Amino acid sequence: NAGVTQTPKFQVLKTGQSMTLQCAQDMNHEYMSWYRQDPGMGLRLIHYSVGAGITDQGEVPNGYNVSRSTTEDFPLRLLSAAPSQTSVYFCASSRAASQPQHFGDGTRLSIL
Amino acid sequence: AQTVTQSQPEMSVQEAETVTLSCTYDTSENNYYLFWYKQPPSRQMILVIRQEAYKQQNATENRFSVNFQKAAKSFSLKISDSQLGDTAMYFCAFMKRGGSNYKLTFGKGTLLTVNP
Question: Which terminus of chain B is more solvent-facing, meaning fewer CB atoms within 10 Å of its CB: N or C?
């Protein structure tokens, strides 16, 4: 019973590098989302998707790209990493947007 | 845009006692959902309770209950018979119901410590 799986769990990047954070869910959920969590800031929505082929911006989308080619996968791409993107990233999914979200275990990303 | 405010950055409570965490929100919407999520030191985000704004009855889940005051835009969480395992960061969250804007907005959180 995997639920929402995020990889990697930890990553260190250099400024300017690019990378993709992976998120997969096996619950056939339509809604998926990415958040970042910074100290004292709570969780902030980066991008979300209401189904395959449909994505939209959240509160803090700059510097991140997403795509949703399948129901199961929702990768988050950092195009050119910056120190301000050092954070813990959470992926979440739910059966529908209004339903409670299931969260992955998070990815701790450090950018030097 | 919606905002969610948790005015208590930290709270503590003795084991077996009751504690209430505050949450207020600002919105012009009439139909929406409110949530409380718990994040223990393991970093997992766990749903505690969900309230639909059109329902007047306050939601309850075992030892957890809410006091939902729609006119006051207040959504507090009461934890009864606190247990050591309740030690966690608690986040209040808001989502508009319907339309095409499916954004979950979180408060900054309240760190709750349950003392033995």
Answer: C
